[in-house]
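S.,

As promised, the N,N,N-trimethyl-histidine run. Input:
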Amino acid sequence: MTQSAARFENFDFGFSHDRFSLEIRSKPEQHTSLANDVLVGLGRTPKSLPPKHFYDEVGSRLFDQICDTPEYYPTRTEQTLLERFADDIVRKTQPRCIVELGSGSSRKISTVLAAVERTRTRCRYIPFDVSHSMLEVSSRDLVKRFPWLEVHAIAGDYDRDFDALPLSGPTLFVFLGGTIGNFTPREATEFLSKLRSHMKLGDHLLLGTDLVKDHDVLNAAYNDAAGVTAAFNKNVLSVINRRLDASFDVDAFQHVAFFDHAQARIEMHLESLKAQTVQVRALGMAVEFDSGERILTEISRKFTRPRVAHMLKTSGLRLDAWFEASNGYFGLSVARGG
Ligand code: AVJ
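Predicted complex:
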């Protein structure tokens, strides 16, 4: 066991070596409470499912493919912003510890770590994600690339298992991709307030937010011509089939996504192509669909700078610096407590 591992002996350690340890806070079958979300979300009208269930192995791979479609601009816009401003962000926040929530493939963080390297300081990286395999692959890659880096990966639900992190010194919490947009305004404030309660003097938050823009651009980003987003959306039905022994005919639903101007959000739905009844055997549940009935599977809110500042303020945070793409497509905020 490494030193940091010893301090967390109440948790399971999946893996531990020199500069990389993987801490398992919840097993993939437990952390997402899929059964409860299906019971509640498909048991009421209108039907809905939380977006976190998209990301099994197949779904995570599909999401990476979405990022490579020509229509889906957020990932590459944010990456360009990071490349341009990582040095400024690191100079401003001087992190000795970087915690990334929903780190995924950790592609973007290496841009920040390269900027840390240029300041000739070191830091510890704590990626937090549901996907064990993704954490393992990306962490191995990072310690190889940065010979000074210590990675303490945590497999769990950052919305739930977020406690007793092995922090050391000024910490930069990182929440990228615009994923904060998956939360309703109330949920976002709850989440950020909780994060705020873990922040000490000198800690910062680096937050990525997708911005309101031309509706055609927004609609295209969630309706790519190659149909990757449609496959990603429908995959949640396969997840339910496999994990809860359900009988969804994936081809009997179609992908629907559109920008709702009034709520400044993309809504993604699965629309039943016929009247049908689906069995969820593990729950002893029969779910009836009318023809054309929809399941809301994701919201993705789009912001403006004042809306971000307001959201941060209501969560006890203060917008300290704002970096925006020259086309106005995406924003990066640096915030601090109070
Ligand atoms: C990973 C939540 C930022 O909301 O744009 C991409 C997920 N859904 N295409 C987003 C997603 C459909 C994505 N986030």
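The longest helix spans residues 74-93. The radius of gyration is 20 Å.

- D.
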